[in-house]
Amino acid sequence: MPLHSLSPVSAEALLGLWHLTEPADTLWELLPSPAHYLARFPEGRDELRARQWLAARVLAGQLLRELTDAPTPIENDLNGRPYFAGLPAFGVSLSHSGEWVAAVVARGAAAVGTDIELIRPKARQLARRFLSEAEQADAGNDAAKHCLYWSAKETLYKLHSRRGLVFKEQLLLNPFERREAGVLTGHLLLENSRRQHQIHYFQPTPNYVLTYCVDTA
């Protein structure tokens, strides 16, 4: 079944996972407002990325229906951040990697973020681009930990949707011991402020890591 799980992560927030197995035609039929998305469908994407894009919006629509009787399609702001048009009290975040799609929908949250990543050597190879020296030392030779660092920083980035953030300098994580599930402490460093967030993580399958955060501040 494509909808793999739907889990409450707080009293007002849901996390959904979609196992992407169906073709694009089937996903179009599942969308709450196909005409709306047809006008916004990104051209030039390969087949997999097109299916991921569609499945993320199908999943978000299903999560929203669990929280309200007013289904609303998704728009994107100037920074590319998704939001439900006409429902400012609801936050949404989307992510996809390989055959998995994730979404978080929350009512009354200041911001939400989620990211899912296939564990692969690429994150370790690019570590100097997105990890501080302390974070590189903490990640060591652990490929899964490198991916978890990357995923958590993506979640932090989505929380704030601010272009130009430098991942290795402004999005930082405290050292941690990687487990199957846990909570990471992340920091957003701006010119005149510092914000701290608790980022939850787990492995939905042995080959993937998923992070999410619901900011109620």
TrEMBL record:
Keywords: Transferase
SUPFAM superfamilies: 4'-phosphopantetheinyl transferase
Domain 4'-phosphopantetheinyl transferase: 111-213
Pfam family for this entry, one: ACPS
Record GO terms (molecular function): holo-[acyl-carrier-protein] synthase activity; magnesium ion binding
Superkingdom of this protein's organism: Bacteria
InterPro entries recorded: 4-PPantetheinyl_Trfase_dom (IPR008278), 4-PPantetheinyl_Trfase_dom_sf (IPR037143)
Protein name: 4'-phosphopantetheinyl transferase superfamily protein
Organism, scientific name: Hymenobacter lapidiphilus
